[in-house]
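BUG: 3D viewer hangs when loading the predicted structure for this chain

Environment: internal workstation, default settings.
Expected: structure renders.
Actual: progress bar stalls at 90%.

Input used:
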Amino acid sequence: MTHRHAQRLSRRTTLGLLFAAAAGVMAAGMPAAAQAQAKGELQVRIGYQKYGTLTLLKGRGTLEKRLAEQGVGVKWTEFPAGPVLLEGLNVGSIDFGTVGEAPPIFAQAAGANLVYVGNEPASPASEAIVVPKGSGLRTLADLKGKKIALNKGSNVHYLLLKALEKAGVAYADIQPVFLPPADARAAFERGSVDAWAIWDPFLAAAEKQLGARVLADGKGLVANYQFYLASRTYAEKNPEILRIVLDEVAKVDDWGRNNPDEVATILSAQTGLGKDVVALAASRYAYGVKPVSVDVIASQQRVADAFSGLKLIPKPIVVKDALLPARQLATSTK
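Structure tokens produced before the viewer hung:
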């Protein structure tokens, strides 16, 4: 068996697991998307950010070609961060998107009707707490009493919690400054905050362009999974479309893993960032879309419990409630 053939078989196995349950919610004999609503007016509206496989997928254009054969259109909408992307999902402006660990927790606690449909492997080095190059802050313990910029409810919110916990600093003993990435960078540059918790490619840009120094990244603190989510209604009505989307994600993952220079070229064009910046960010990616396993759900529950314990979300949640009812979680990560 060739390596390429083995990759195809592995991808088929993974996608079969991803939507084994979704198939269960399809009515017997449900027509294909090509025969679906309004003769070609069906579409999938995808929310993406300036990172990861969805940005590559958009840049390559393969999803549009694949879905056009089924009479399905694709609409892309860029968001600055995960929390606002999931707000878009909740209000019905998009159907599918990718975010980090924390945004689905905040969204679920707020009553968003979303479902997890897959995730990329852990990528802890893709987020960090950085300080200006001339900063006197040298350890996580030095963050006590300091102003730290971050996007509220984003993946780095959980990174900050775990970093402070490791250092023995209470969350109440720092001054969080909640800003989206562009505003946070401006505050960081002018010195109105002492540190910045941020993710790639904004992290890579801060390192390359500003000389920002990493105080701590996610290694040993957090997993930093990237999750693919859909609105529950869309997932239940259109599992075959999501199956195709995730199959194309898997193909881009296979391609991206083996073509780092081409990845940097596409990401640079898609994000407007220099190739050196996106190459650094891409070097920290983790490729390989998988079904959401029992272990990953348990990890997400720990994230939820941490936010709940600090009263940062309005109520405790059960993460597994955000799965399709008929879903059978895969216990294997292969």
